[in-house]
UniProtKB/TrEMBL annotation:
<keyword id="KW-0812">Transmembrane</keyword>
<keyword id="KW-0169">Cobalamin biosynthesis</keyword>
<feature type="transmembrane region" description="Helical">
    <location>
        <begin position="58"/>
        <end position="76"/>
    </location>
</feature>
<feature type="transmembrane region" description="Helical">
    <location>
        <begin position="289"/>
        <end position="308"/>
    </location>
</feature>
<comment type="function">
    <text>Converts cobyric acid to cobinamide by the addition of aminopropanol on the F carboxylic group.</text>
</comment>
<dbReference type="InterPro" id="IPR004485">
    <property type="entry name" value="Cobalamin_biosynth_CobD/CbiB"/>
</dbReference>
<protein>
    <recommendedName>
        <fullName>Cobalamin biosynthesis protein CobD</fullName>
    </recommendedName>
</protein>
<comment type="pathway">
    <text>Cofactor biosynthesis; adenosylcobalamin biosynthesis.</text>
</comment>
<dbReference type="Pfam" id="PF03186">
    <property type="entry name" value="CobD_Cbib"/>
</dbReference>
<keyword id="KW-1003">Cell membrane</keyword>
<feature type="transmembrane region" description="Helical">
    <location>
        <begin position="151"/>
        <end position="173"/>
    </location>
</feature>
<comment type="similarity">
    <text>Belongs to the CobD/CbiB family.</text>
</comment>
<keyword id="KW-1133">Transmembrane helix</keyword>
<keyword id="KW-0472">Membrane</keyword>
Length: 315
């Protein structure tokens, strides 16, 4: 661990950060990531032009990520555990996942398809204007499973590695990937560093997330999750989203992926999982899989701290 924190301290800090997130959710006003996003937009508008777009993207990424992470590393060294907890709280998005996806389920159950389309359109980039209930359920479940890694488990992993500054590094890099990491004319070169940095930071936590979904698969779905992970993940464009979503879809025993419309154009995406098409209730099942996986990570951290303490190991 790069922070000098003991295992027991890390376990308690993880619990505190997750608890704060579940109790308070994202800050409604003055959220640091909102200001960060605006700064990223302004900097991209200035740098993403002319020649040497990859180098300009590297410069933009460095200017946005390095200073706040270095500042928070200094603050954590001087002010201690409170800084670590606050950084973890701000970087986590567990409650936000619930708040953005379960209302889709409520709208579908109420038969309010227009509202469900509007709510789904806020969290995915695909077109939802003509989506049916199954399409919306699929989009909600996919968003939960993938963002379980991006908004929760990647953050927890890097917190264990490098404390609050590590969690902040991961969330800022993930945010820049979401803003710049597109393979289109505007961002293909400028956003390449952001995309590759996110891929690298997600390499380990994404596979731990997929393993967590496999271990907590309901009704004996672990074998199915492993088979989908092994056979389907490599066909997905993202090297990290593939294992996460294939394992999650297999664990739930539903079909995800497949055709989806983006910017008016139908794209044929690889199939994920196995079983029937996603139904509205699968949004709730995906949320529970993410939530229980979070509890599993907290339990493992607490158990590791207890074992080390009993063994007299000062770690």
């Amino acid at each position: 661990m790069l922070t000098g924190l003991h295992a027991a301290q890390l376990a308690w800090l993880l619990l505190a950060g997750v608890t704060l997130d579940l109790l308070l959710g994202e800050a409604r006003r003055w959220h640091p990531l909102v200001g960060f996003g605006r700064a990223a937009q302004a900097l991209e508008a200035r740098l993403n032009r002319g020649q040497a777009r990859i180098a300009r993207g590297l410069l933009g990424w460095s200017l946005l990520v390095a200073p706040p992470v270095a500042l928070c590393w200094w603050l954590a060294g001087h002010w201690g555990m409170a800084v670590h907890v606050l950084l973890l709280y701000f970087a986590l998005g567990l409650r936000s996942l619930r708040e953005h996806t379960l209302p889709i389920l409520s709208a579908l159950r109420a038969g309010d398809l227009p509202l469900a389309r509007t709510l789904t359109g806020r969290i995915v980039s695909r077109d939802t204007a003509d989506a049916n209930a199954s399409d919306l359920a699929k989009a909600g479940a996919e968003s939960l499973l993938e963002n379980g890694n991006d908004a929760v488990f990647g953050t927890l992993f890097w917190f264990v590695v490098a404390g609050g500054p590590g969690a902040l590094l991961f969330r800022l890099a993930n945010t820049l990937d979401a803003m710049w990491g597109y393979r289109n004319e505007r961002y293909n070169l400028f956003g390449r560093v952001a995309a590759r940095a996110d891929d690298l930071l997600n390499l380990v936590p994404a596979r731990l997330t997929a393993l967590s979904y496999l271990l907590l698969a309901p009704r004996g779905g672990s074998v199915r999750a492993w088979r989908c992970w092994r056979e389907q993940a490599r066909s997905w464009d993202s090297p990290n989203a593939g294992p996460v979503m294939a394992s999650g879809a297999g664990a739930l025993g539903i079909a995800l992926g497949g055709p989806a419309r983006y910017a008016g154009r139908l794209e044929s995406r690889p199939a994920l999982g196995c079983g029937p098409d996603a139904a509205p209730v699968d949004i709730l099942r995906a949320w529970r899989l993410v939530l229980f996986s979070t509890f599993l990570w907290l339990a493992l951290a607490g158990s590791a701290a207890a074992v080390l303490k009993l063994g007299g190991v000062h770690a």
